[in-house]
Amino acid sequence: MVSQNLSVKDGNIFGMELPADISGLAVEFANTLVHDGRGGVEDLLSSAAAARAWVARRGLGPDVDYESLLAARSAARALFAGAVAPHPASRADNGRTGMPTATALRLLQGAVDAIAPATRYAYEAGRVTATRTTELEPNAAIVGTLALAVLELLASPAADELRACQAPRCVRYFRKHRRQEWCKPSCANRARVARFAERHQAAADDQADPGRDYAPDARTSPSRIRSSSRSK
């Protein structure tokens, strides 16, 4: 969530405080593409109305430039796909022609420059606190705020934790913690079921055709044995 009423200019209060958990916001933004449960991809920003609802739920304002938002998401996913290498990118990004990373970076940099973020420091309860702010109204700052979240994450040590979930059908990115392999427990369960099914199928194939992987030794082949017998 964001809090407003940060700045005063000509007697008018305006501006907004940027979200504190900005790296989490970056991953949420990229993950507005999700699997639809049928092997395809569902877009949580599939319409301008859906986009307005998504940003409003995160306290970023009731309205947003829809085309700019979609372009920023394409840029974010292009940079995420590059950041997880040499690990595989999301299935929604892997193997398709996306936005070039140089273009993605320019787009997000421009969006951040437009909101001119500033850092405000305060002294509270014996410690210095910091908040990121912009003097733009929330509606005008939404895309820039999301762009800032993406670039701040990718420029931080947390970028090394970024992974694409490889569970069947999943297209989400997530931040890996310790030995975590999947983005959420349901994906872990689905991956285990898929692995069990693969092992079961491999065992069934071996039983159906036990000699399919057998390559006879030329020294013990029937023709070689007969030849050896005649030579004696």
What is the residue-averaged pLDDT?
A: 79
| Major sheet: arrangement of strands | 1-2-6-5
As for the CATH topology, it is Jann2411-like fold
Shape: globular
Tell me which CATH architecture applies here.
Orthogonal Bundle
Which segments are poorly predicted (pLDDT under 50) over 5 or more consecutive residues? 1-14
Q: Could you give the order of the helices and strands?
A: EEHEEHHHEEHEEHH
Number of domains: 1
Strand content: 15-25%
Radius of gyration over all CA atoms, rounded: 27 Å
Question: What does the main sheet amount to?
Answer: 4 strands, antiparallel
Q: Which structural category do the helix and sheet elements fall into?
A: alpha+beta
Overview of this protein structure:
By secondary structure, the chain is α+β, with helices and mostly antiparallel strands. It contains seven helices and eight strands; from the N terminus they run E-E-H-E-E-H-H-H-E-E-H-E-E-H-H. It has helices spanning 22-30, 48-57, 66-83, 101-115, 138-154, 185-208, 222-231, and strands at residues 4-9, 12-17, 33-35, 41-43, 118-124, 127-134, 162-164, 173-175. The radius of gyration is 27 Å and the shape is globular. The chain starts with a strand and ends with a helix.
Structure summary:
This protein is an alpha+beta fold and 232 residues long.
Task: Give a quick set of tags describing it.
single chain; 232 residues; alpha+beta; Jann2411-like fold; four-stranded antiparallel sheet; two-stranded antiparallel sheet; 7 helices; 8 strands; 44% helix
